[in-house]
Design brief:
Largest sheet: 8 strands, parallel, barrel
Strand content: 15-25%
Low-confidence stretches: none
Mean pLDDT: 93
Order of helices and strands: HEHEHEEHEHHEHEHEHH
Shape: globular
Structural class: alpha/beta
């Protein structure tokens, strides 16, 4: 059964055609910086704030960061955990994700089992997601012991995405990795989107409005940017650029 955060995301996708998520790594930004970035991101039109990182090991850092974000924005805060340490009772929801192309069962079902009781205790809304790492995979691929899908083999991504849908997951995420030099190719996005009936999220290597628009034109329902949001001098201007490109590309798809 879906909850209010999932309903909100689906309604925004239906209304805008495609949406933007701002991803903040609590190990890369201070709580104050996270608060300021989130405030500007909300003004610029981002749909939700994601909090997480591939190497997070201290849940206290996550707690402090989420509380800072919640103090400055009314946007939902969705956890993007690398492990149990990435959970926080102060968030609204959590991507309950399975790294489908990991070679380690822990990242497919083990971490999920370990986290499930805390998620219930914290009353976090779980958002079931099939997580698929592509290309070089960057830190996410290394930590998650993934066998990244080669960008020249998009059919393999389709297989995993369909498996996610058939397993009952309600979102699919194609990830090139934070700070990746190569983003997920349009051909891969397009083939996956045409094969599945659930929302498709794309992230990694997206640095410009053109990159974001290209992903949406290919079929992405949501675009995630992290590194570029954390490093830009004007968060509001950068996210406005991304959001406007996303919406324009989505309008052309209709």
């Amino acid at each position: 059964m879906s909850g209010k955060i999932e309903a909100y995301l689906l309604s925004k996708i239906k209304l805008d055609g495609a949406i933007h998520f701002s991803l903040l790594d609590p190990e890369e930004v201070s709580p104050h910086e996270a608060s300021e970035i989130s405030r500007e991101a909300e003004k610029a039109g981002t749909t939700a704030i994601m909090v997480g990182g591939s190497t997070v090991t201290d849940s206290k850092i996550v707690d402090v960061t989420v509380k800072a974000i919640k103090s400055s924005t009314k946007l939902p805060v969705i956890l993007f955990p690398n492990d149990v340490a990435g959970l926080s009772r102060y968030a609204d929801a959590v991507w309950f994700m399975s790294l489908l192309n990991s070679s380690d069962p822990y990242f497919i079902t083990g971490a999920q089992a370990a986290a499930s009781k805390l998620i219930k205790q914290y009353t976090l809304e779980p958002l079931p997601l099939g997580y698929i790492i592509t290309g070089s995979g960057e830190a996410a691929g290394l930590v998650g012991k993934a066998k990244p899908i080669p960008h020249e083999k998009p059919g393999l991504a389709v297989n995993y995405a369909l498996a996610a849908q058939y397993l009952g997951m309600r979102f699919v995420y194609l990830e090139a990795g934070s700070g990746a030099k190569e983003k997920v190719p349009s051909e891969m996005i397009n083939l996956v989107k045409n094969a599945i009936e659930i929302p498709l999220i794309v992230g990694g290597g997206i640095k410009t409005g053109g990159d974001a628009g290209q992903a949406v034109a290919a079929g992405a329902d949501a675009v995630v940017t992290g590194t570029i949001v954390e490093e830009t001098e004007s968060v509001e201007n950068k996210i406005s650029e991304l959001v406007q490109s996303i919406r324009k590309a989505a309008a052309k798809r209709k």
